[in-house]
Q: What sequence folds into this?
């Protein structure tokens, strides 16, 4: 059903806009879909000037359409270099190109290869920067409850990003892995997994726990 | 084919996407949070609570200075000040569904949601 609907949508988009670059991505592209899966389609066009995510429902299936412009790579370059949440580029990297007469999707994939190379070369510097940010966040405790929670989650997010930079600097996470990076951490470093699990969600001892774990384990091993 | 025709029209007109984007981002965020809540059992409880809370904090920051959402922002803040739990999630879910009914039910008849990725 999903493949059939995806083909229908792609054919429709192509007939409505023949020079639109179109690729199938997500679980339908890699064959891991089930009846509850979305259909994810990647598009690009030489006249588009920005990037969008549009979604709607068709035949009771959620259809997500990602429209990417190459400038997202410099708009988001720091995030893409430092942090593990690179789902957006995963959608591009793992996509199956259907139409690409202007080679726009091929160009996006080339930019991802370049990004991965930079991540690999710069990983020590990137890890060091993330550690500095963690120290800064720990030293600037916030009195406002929501800001306090944000700081904790930023620290934990940086720790997860450090883990992925150290262990998998060239890896682009799949959608499933991006939603649940903890399973990968659990497999590779059970101690780090248990530390994260003990700190989430934010509670009155979270900061104490993470400070202790940073000093005794995280900054030593990473 | 109405939905598909709208998607195709949106995608073939970049200006239309930019001009009509107002308000869609909030609806997008609400739907995303409700989806996170709906699938929270697929993840360890501690991690799923954090995922939901992070998304709700981002949403709260997005709407807190918008006068039309002021009452909802205050309610959200009260919930965020508590430690995340199943009970807080239930209250959050009810609040977000109320927001959907009050603000988006009449403007989203074909279920199209646009997120500007800039």
A:
């Amino acid at each position: 059903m999903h493949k059939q609907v995806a083909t229908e949508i792609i054919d429709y988009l192509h007939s409505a806009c023949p020079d639109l670059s179109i690729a199938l991505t997500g679980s339908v592209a890699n064959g891991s879909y089930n009846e509850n899966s979305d259909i994810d389609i990647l598009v690009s066009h030489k006249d588009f000037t920005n990037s969008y995510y549009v979604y709607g429902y068709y035949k009771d299936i959620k259809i997500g359409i990602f429209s990417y412009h190459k400038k997202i790579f410099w708009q988001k370059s720091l995030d893409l270099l430092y942090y593990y949440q690179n789902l957006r580029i995963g959608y591009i990297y793992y996509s199956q190109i259907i139409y690409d007469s202007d080679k726009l999707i091929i160009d996006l994939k080339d930019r991802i290869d370049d990004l991965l190379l930079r991540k690999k070369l710069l990983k020590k510097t990137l890890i060091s920067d993330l550690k500095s940010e963690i120290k800064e966040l720990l030293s600037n405790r916030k009195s406002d409850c929501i800001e306090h929670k944000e700081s904790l989650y930023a620290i934990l997010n940086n720790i997860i990003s450090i883990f992925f930079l150290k262990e998998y600097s060239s890896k682009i996470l799949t959608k499933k892995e991006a939603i649940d990076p903890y399973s990968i951490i659990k497999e590779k470093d059970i101690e780090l997994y248990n530390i994260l699990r003990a700190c989430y969600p934010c509670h009155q001892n979270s900061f104490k726990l993470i400070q202790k774990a940073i000093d005794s384990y995280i900054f030593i091993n990473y | 084919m109405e939905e598909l025709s709208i998607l195709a029209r949106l995608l073939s007109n970049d200006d239309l996407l930019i001009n009509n984007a107002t308000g869609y981002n909030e609806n997008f965020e609400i739907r995303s949070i409700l989806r996170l809540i709906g699938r929270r059992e697929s993840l360890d409880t501690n991690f799923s609570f954090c995922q939901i809370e992070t998304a709700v904090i981002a949403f709260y920051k997005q709407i807190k200075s918008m006068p039309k959402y002021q009452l909802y922002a205050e309610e959200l803040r009260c919930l965020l000040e508590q430690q995340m739990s199943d009970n807080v999630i239930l209250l959050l879910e009810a609040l977000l569904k109320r927001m959907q009914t009050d603000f988006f039910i009449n403007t989203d008849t074909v279920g199209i949601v646009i997120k500007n990725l800039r």
In short: Chain A has two domains: 2-120, 123-221.
